Amino acid sequence: MTTVGFRTVAADVEHDIEVKRSLFRCTLRRVADEDAARTVIAQVRRAHWDARHHCSAYVLGPAGALQRSHDDGEPAGTAGAPMLAALHGAELTDVVAVVTRWFGGVLLGTGGLARAYRAAVTGAIESAGVLVRRPVTLLAVAADHAHAGGLEHAVRAADPAAVRAVDYTADGVRLALAVPPERVDALRTLVAEQTAGTGSLAETGSDFADA
């Protein structure tokens, strides 16, 4: 897992531009995997069945290792590649862009098409905004009933965004936390202090969280 995080879109958007009477609509979505990206592409095709082209590009994975683009009937290299270049230019990953084109009757030429498809994606990115997802360590914390309330309060006070789940059981409380790696030792100390050494903390995995 990358130790520096990655950039993705902050919101799902649709963005329209018109070029010589052709309408280009970019559907931009944040996605977690290739199945989700393909689902978005299929949904756009169904929603805009009357359009001539549904060109697409997506980048996936923390390092952007998985990349795909498709011209969907446009001249080779005039749609998918420029769209992918727009995603690369914004340094985005875990994102899919689908540009639907309704032909307006005027031919744009290969250069005009490439500029239009890239501009549609660039405009959508500007509309959506960008956020950074940082690596986090997943923690499982447990404490008995005597310390449960105080521990939960202390954890939320220290880092409100860290708490992913709270489960009160017959034995006490279990907290599922996600914290930056550099905060793990501080959380370990906090748990020990709040539970008089009776609580437990275990690292259960890693993930990313919006910064």
TrEMBL record:
GO terms for cellular component: cytoplasm. One of its GO terms (biological process) is regulation of translational initiation. Residues 142-197 form the UPF0029 domain. Residues 20-124 form the Impact N-terminal domain. It holds the Pfam family DUF1949. Signal peptide: none annotated. InterPro entries: EFG_III/V, Impact, Impact_N, Impact_N_sf, Ribosomal_Su5_D2-typ_SF, UPF0029_Impact_C, UPF0029_Impact_CS. Belongs to the IMPACT family. This is YigZ family protein. It comes from Actinocatenispora thailandica.
